[in-house]
Each structure stands twice: as C-alpha cells, then as structure tokens.
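Take a specimen:
=====
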Amino acid sequence: MGSPISTVSPLAFIEPCLPWVALQPPSEEGWLHEVKHPGHRLMACRAGDNLRLFAQHGEDWTERFPALVEAVRLLPVKSCIIDGELVGCDENGNILRDSADEAGAEDNVSYYAFDLIEVNGFDVRRDPIEDRKRGLAHLLRKAPDIMRFNPHFEREGEAVFREACRMGFDGVVSKRRGSPYLSGRCTNWLFSRKLD
C-alpha cells in the first residue's frame, strides 16, 4: 500500500483536500457518503515521538489538545498523517453545533478521522479512497475514545443526506470511489450542505 515518502515529512503541514459545494449528493453509483460533522478540520501528524496537530490553514494546535496528541502517540505506528474533524460535545456527549471551542474543555471534544495520508513512511495519497479508509479503520480499531473513525455509506446519496440532516449534522461529503487524495479544492469530494 502506498509509495515511499520522498519529499513529505509526517510533521510538515499538508494542504487538506477541500470539497466542492453541491446542491445535492450524487445519485449514481461509485460514491462513498460520509456525515459532515460541525467542527474544525484538523490534521494529526506523527513521526516517532514527535507529534503535531495542524488546523485547516496550517496553524499549530498541538498545545491546545494534549489528550488528542497522546491518543495519536498510542497508535501502533511509527508515523502517520490523519485527516479529520475536531468536534465539540456537551457533558452528555451531544455534538455542539458550531465549534470545538464551545465545549469549554478538552474532555468534551472528539476527533472524527476520515482519511489517511501517510502511514509508517508510506505516502498513501495515490491509493484509492476506499483503501485509505480501510487502512484508517484498521489503525483506529483500538484507539482511545477521543479518536473515532468516521464511517461511510455506499447506499443512495440522497437517503444518506436526508438522514444526516434529520440527525442535525451539516450534511454529507460524497467521495468518488477510486480517487486519490488531492490537496486543494477537488471535484472528487462534494459537500451537500444542509439548508437552514
């Protein structure tokens, strides 16, 4: 899986893949549909005992969330770069609408991981999304509770979208099967947003 890293350091900021906004999710086959959580995009990066958390525009948030840093440190890898969303929750575990900052304490956040970019020295960005997600699910199977795998659904996108909106999520991000991870705005990822 993947190709050896040559120019990318696991501790260097990588511009995230950003979805195009769509009026509705794709209806044809060949797409994975994920719930879009309300929170902050965050890259969790590790190289040995060195770790960094990068926000969407490259801000270093490592010091802000030591419990998440420790969770990444406990993963059974030498290095990794994981893409995900940091989500604030109230004291009952209910997701807060606007941001992880509302949680008021690190104990009230969860990290929903949805993509794997690098693992054990291998750059997996060229691998198909379904293979990267399979590797990520395997990596997180015994992760601390703060880290959660964000699953996908392959059934009809509109049904997933309706259910996500009914449950109070932001909508869905649909990802084309077989697609690589590309930094910047990408039509392989489509965000169908819940309308208020």
